[in-house]
C-alpha cells in the first residue's frame, strides 16, 4: 500500500509570521474604543491611518510609514467629522487620498500632504451627504478611481461618482443593516452580508439582486470574493455558536459548497484574501492569532497551512497593498495589528523562507498597480475591465522606491494637460475632480498611443510586402 501525505505540495507550505521589532512599531496611539465591527486602520506604501479616541467629534491619525516609534500625544489629526469615525480607506490609485465615514452621516475625502500632517486637518476635499443615518462602511471600486461605495445604518448603499461629487445610484435591497461589502476583481459584482442573515450578489450599476442565500442556520458576518475563482467566502456563527467559514458558488447560492468550523470564540472573524498567491488569512477581533490557508477551486478547497500566534489581542488589522511589501525579504503579505491595551500598532509580515538571492517570480506574480483601468463614466455606462497589472521586480532592484524623490519631473504637460505628480494641499474639491479627470486623460492617451504603434507595425509590414513584390 502506498503512503500519501495529507499535505499537498505547495510553495507556501512553510510561510511563517514575523512580528515587527519594537523599533518598527508605532506606540502611544489612543486607539478608538468603538465597539463597531471594523478595522479602524488603513495602510498604504506611504501612510498609516488609525482611528483614535477623541472628544467633540471624530478623528484619525495619519502617520508617515517610515516614521515608526512613539507618537507625540499632540500629533496632528484629521478631525473634520462631527461624529465618531467608523471606517477609513485609502484610495488604491492615489496614495495621498483617503476616504472616511462617520456617525455624522457623511463620507469625506481627504488629501494628505506628502510629508504627513503638520497641523490638524479640518477641511475635506469633498463632503458626500446622502445617508440619513450613520455611515458605517466604505469601499473603493477596484479598477475605477472615480467610484466609491458607502453603506449606512439607513440600510442603503450609495454609489458616488467622485468626478462629479454626487451620488449616482442608491441600492435599496437590504431590510436591515449591511455588515460587509466586497467587489469582485473587475468591480462588476458586489457581494454583501446583512443583519437579516442573507448573503447577496448584486449588480452594483442596476442595483438588481442576482443571487441571494438565506443563511437560516448561520449568522453571516463577513464576505469576500475569492479572486477569479468564481467563489465567495463568508465568515459567521453557526447555530451552535461556533465560528465558521463557508464557500459559495457566486452563480448559485442555494447551498454552500463546503463549510468548516473554526473555534468557539465570539469575536468577528475577518477574512483577507490574496488573489496573487491564492492564500486566505483569518484574523478574529479579540484574538491573538492569525490563521492562514491555501485556496483551490477543487476539493478540498481549503488547505490549512499554519497559524501566527501572539498573546496580545487585536482590535483590528490593516493590510498593506501588495505593491508595498518587502520583495527582498520574500514578504508576501503584511498586517498592521491594533493592540488597544498598549496603544500599539504592530506590523506582522508573512514570509516565504527562501535562500536564493534572486527575484522570486513564482511567489510575486503580476499584481494590481496604481493606474485605474477606466473612468467613472465608462464604468457607469456598463464597461468592465480588470485591474492594470504591474511587476514587483523593479521593487527588488530598488529596495527603497518610496524614498526616491521626484525633482525636475514634478510637473509635466501632455497635450496641454497639466499633470501634477506631487499635488499641493488644497481645500477646494475641484482639485480632486481635476485629478480624477486627468487620470482618465492619461489612460486615453496611452490607449491612443498603443493604437498608433499597432498601425505603424501594420504599415511597416505592408511596405515590406510591397518591396518584396
UniProtKB/TrEMBL annotation:
<dbReference type="InterPro" id="IPR015505">
    <property type="entry name" value="Coronin"/>
</dbReference>
<dbReference type="Pfam" id="PF00400">
    <property type="entry name" value="WD40"/>
</dbReference>
<dbReference type="Pfam" id="PF08953">
    <property type="entry name" value="DUF1899"/>
</dbReference>
<feature type="repeat" description="WD">
    <location>
        <begin position="78"/>
        <end position="120"/>
    </location>
</feature>
<dbReference type="InterPro" id="IPR001680">
    <property type="entry name" value="WD40_rpt"/>
</dbReference>
<dbReference type="InterPro" id="IPR036322">
    <property type="entry name" value="WD40_repeat_dom_sf"/>
</dbReference>
<dbReference type="InterPro" id="IPR019775">
    <property type="entry name" value="WD40_repeat_CS"/>
</dbReference>
<keyword id="KW-0175">Coiled coil</keyword>
<dbReference type="Pfam" id="PF16300">
    <property type="entry name" value="WD40_4"/>
</dbReference>
<feature type="coiled-coil region">
    <location>
        <begin position="435"/>
        <end position="469"/>
    </location>
</feature>
<feature type="domain" description="DUF1899">
    <location>
        <begin position="6"/>
        <end position="69"/>
    </location>
</feature>
<dbReference type="InterPro" id="IPR015943">
    <property type="entry name" value="WD40/YVTN_repeat-like_dom_sf"/>
</dbReference>
<dbReference type="GO" id="GO:0051015">
    <property type="term" value="F:actin filament binding"/>
</dbReference>
<comment type="similarity">
    <text>Belongs to the WD repeat coronin family.</text>
</comment>
<keyword id="KW-0009">Actin-binding</keyword>
<protein>
    <recommendedName>
        <fullName>Coronin</fullName>
    </recommendedName>
</protein>
<keyword id="KW-0853">WD repeat</keyword>
<feature type="repeat" description="WD">
    <location>
        <begin position="171"/>
        <end position="212"/>
    </location>
</feature>
<keyword id="KW-0677">Repeat</keyword>
<dbReference type="InterPro" id="IPR015048">
    <property type="entry name" value="DUF1899"/>
</dbReference>
<feature type="repeat" description="WD">
    <location>
        <begin position="128"/>
        <end position="170"/>
    </location>
</feature>
Amino acid at each position: 500500500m502506498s503512503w500519501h501525505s495529507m499535505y499537498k505540495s505547495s510553495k507556501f507550505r512553510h510561510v511563517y509570521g514575523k512580528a515587527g521589532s519594537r523599533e518598527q512599531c508605532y506606540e502611544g496611539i489612543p486607539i478608538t474604543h468603538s465597539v463597531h465591527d471594523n478595522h479602524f486602520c488603513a495602510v498604504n506604501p506611504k501612510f498609516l491611518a488609525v482611528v483614535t479616541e477623541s472628544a467633540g467629534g471624530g478623528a484619525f491619525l495619519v502617520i508617515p510609514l517610515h516614521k515608526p516609534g512613539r507618537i507625540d500625544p499632540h500629533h496632528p489629526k484629521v478631525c473634520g467629522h462631527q461624529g465618531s469615525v467608523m471606517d477609513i480607506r485609502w484610495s488604491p490609485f492615489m496614495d495621498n487620498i483617503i476616504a472616511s465615514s462617520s456617525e455624522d452621516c457623511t463620507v469625506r475625502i481627504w488629501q494628505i500632504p506628502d510629508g504627513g500632517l503638520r497641523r490638524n486637518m479640518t477641511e475635506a476635499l469633498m463632503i458626500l451627504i446622502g445617508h440619513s443615518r450613520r455611515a458605517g462602511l466604505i469601499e473603493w471600486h477596484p479598477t475605477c478611481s472615480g467610484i466609491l461605495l458607502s453603506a449606512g445604518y439607513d440600510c442603503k448603499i450609495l454609489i458616488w461618482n467622485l468626478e462629479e461629487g454626487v451620488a449616482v445610484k442608491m441600492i435599496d435591497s437590504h431590510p436591515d443593516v449591511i455588515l460587509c461589502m466586497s467587489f469582485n476583481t473587475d468591480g462588476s459584482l458586489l457581494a454583501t452580508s446583512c443583519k437579516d442573515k442573507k448573503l447577496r450578489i448584486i449588480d452594483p450599476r442596476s442595483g438588481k439582486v442576482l443571487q441571494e442565500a438565506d443563511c437560516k442556520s448561520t449568522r453571516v458576518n463577513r464576505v469576500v470574493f475569492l479572486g477569479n475563482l468564481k467563489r465567495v467566502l463568508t465568515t459567521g456563527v453557526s447555530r451552535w455558536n461556533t465560528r465558521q467559514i463557508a464557500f459559495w458558488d457566486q452563480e448559485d447560492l442555494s447551498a454552500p459548497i463546503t463549510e468548516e468550523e473554526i473555534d468557539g470564540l465570539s469575536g468577528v472573524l475577518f477574512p483577507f484574501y490574496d488573489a496573487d498567491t491564492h492564500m486566505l488569512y483569518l484574523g478574529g477581533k479579540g484574538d491573538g492569532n492569525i490563521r492562514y490557508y491555501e485556496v483551490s477551486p477543487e476539493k478540498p478547497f481549503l488547505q490549512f497551512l499554519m497559524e501566527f500566534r501572539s498573546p496580545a489581542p487585536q482590535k483590528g488589522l490593516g493590510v498593506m497593498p501588495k505593491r508595498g511589501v518587502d520583495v527582498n525579504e520574500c514578504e508576501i503579505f503584511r498586517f498592521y495589528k491594533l493592540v488597544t491595551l498598549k496603544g500599539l500598532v504592530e506590523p506582522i509580515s508573512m514570509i516565504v523562507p527562501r535562500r536564493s538571492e534572486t527575484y522570486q517570480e513564482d511567489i510575486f506574480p503580476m499584481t494590481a498597480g496604481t493606474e485605474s483601468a477606466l473612468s467613472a463614466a465608462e464604468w457607469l455606462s456598463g464597461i468592465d475591465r480588470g485591474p492594470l497589472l504591474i511587476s514587483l521586480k523593479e521593487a527588488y532592484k530598488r529596495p527603497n522606491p518610496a524614498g526616491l524623490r521626484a525633482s525636475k519631473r514634478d510637473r509635466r504637460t501632455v497635450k496641454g494637460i497639466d499633470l501634477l505628480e506631487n499635488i499641493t494641499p488644497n481645500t477646494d474639491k475641484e482639485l480632486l475632480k481635476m485629478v480624477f479627470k486627468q487620470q482618465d486623460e492619461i489612460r486615453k492617451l496611452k490607449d491612443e498611443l498603443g493604437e498608433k504603434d499597432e498601425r505603424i507595425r501594420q504599415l511597416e509590414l505592408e511596405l515590406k510586402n510591397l518591396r518584396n513584390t
